[in-house]
């Protein structure tokens, strides 16, 4: 049976450790997963690379991508636009790879509407104090940005229940194992195997007639 990939959306508070988690998941199971690279109007942080971390585009180019329907979803987050390029995601799913979108909440809910089978995972540190500590520890953001990200976390907490699963990122290896397990379990849902079920029923019917 040729199986299509699962579309998994990973959100979580800024500072929840999503980036590290994604990296560890891809290192452990790189052949199975494809990580979508978003377009953004945000400026690159030190060390970030074009085409690896994001496609860094101008606001004009971003508007053009919206008009061309080149994005599956997009959202404005703390003053910048972020969006998921459509072509790459659809091609990878068709090829049977599980595609991960690491996106914020407004975008995640839009994806769920457009792709009802998408799996929504929310990653959080064990406590709010730990979240603040991790944001400060990053050392790349100004005090204002940290503050606006914490305020955003308060807003985002309202939407956690709309996700399918909550992942507490306390121990990285455990969290990677849990995430991989949830996505792979999604392949086994009967809803995703309609073709196979139909074939099985037909074959069983033929066998019954023969006997
Ligand atoms: P950062 O600026 O820290 O890289 O990302 C800020 C937020 O934007 C994060 O919550 C990240 O998950 C989200 N984000 C990144 N790419 C996309 C995207 O394509 N669409 C949406 N809706 N959010 C995104």
Text of the CATH class: Alpha Beta
Bound chemical compounds? guanosine-5'-monophosphate
Q: Order of strands across the widest beta sheet?
A: 2-7-1-8-9
Distance between the termini: 26 Å
| CATH topology description | Rossmann fold
User: How would the global form be characterised?
Assistant: globular
Number of strands: 9
CATH superfamily: P-loop containing nucleotide triphosphate hydrolases
Relative helix content: 40-55%
Q: pLDDT below 50 for ≥5 consecutive residues: which ranges?
A: none
The second-level CATH architecture is: 3-Layer(aba) Sandwich
Oligomer: single chain
Give the domain tally.
1
Task: Decide which structural class fits the backbone.
Answer: alpha/beta
Helical stretch tally: 8
Can you write the helix and strand succession as a string? EHEEEHEEHEHEHHEHH
3D architecture notes:
The protein has 211 residues and is an alpha/beta fold. The chain has one domain (7-210): 3-Layer(aba) Sandwich (Rossmann fold), CATH 3.40.50.300. It has helices at residues 18-29, 59-67, 86-94, 105-114, 128-137, 143-157, 172-187, 194-210, and strands at residues 7-12, 33-35, 39-40, 55-56, 71-77, 80-85, 98-102, 119-124, 165-168. The protein has a five-stranded parallel β-sheet, with helices on both faces. The protein has a four-stranded mixed β-sheet with strand order 4-3-6-5. A hairpin with a 2-residue loop joins strand 5 (71-77) and strand 6. It is globular, with a radius of gyration of 19 Å. The protein starts with 6 loop residues before the first strand and ends with a helix. The relative contact order is 0.19. Residues 14, 38, 42, 73-75, 77, 82-84, 102-104, 106-107 line the site of guanosine-5'-monophosphate. Guanosine-5'-monophosphate (5GP) binds at residues 14, 38, 42, 73-75, 77, 82-84, 102-104, 106-107.
């Amino acid at each position: 049976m040729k199986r299509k990939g699962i579309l998994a959306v990973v959100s979580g508070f800024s500072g929840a450790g999503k980036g590290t988690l994604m990296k560890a998941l891809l290192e452990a199971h790189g052949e199975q997963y494809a990580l979508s690279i978003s377009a953004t109007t945000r400026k690159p942080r030190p060390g970030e690379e074009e085409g690896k971390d994001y496609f860094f585009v101008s606001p004009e180019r971003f508007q053009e991508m919206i008009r061309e329907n080149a994005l599956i979803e997009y959202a404005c987050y703390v003053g910048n636009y972020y969006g998921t390029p459509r072509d790459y995601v659809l091609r990878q799913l068709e090829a049977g790879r599980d595609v991960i979108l690491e996106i914020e909440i407004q975008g995640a809910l839009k994806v769920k509407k457009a792709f009802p089978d998408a799996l929504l995972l929310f990653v959080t540190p064990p406590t709010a104090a730990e979240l603040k500590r991790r944001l400060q520890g990053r050392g790349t953001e100004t005090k204002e940005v940290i503050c606006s990200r914490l305020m955003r976390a308060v807003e985002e907490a309202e939407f956690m229940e709309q996700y399918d699963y909550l992942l507490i990122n306390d121990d990285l290896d455990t969290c990677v194992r849990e995430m991989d397990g949830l996505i792979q379990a999604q392949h086994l849902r009967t809803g995703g195997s309609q073709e196979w079920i139909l074939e099985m029923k037909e074959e069983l019917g033929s066998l019954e007639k023969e006997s």
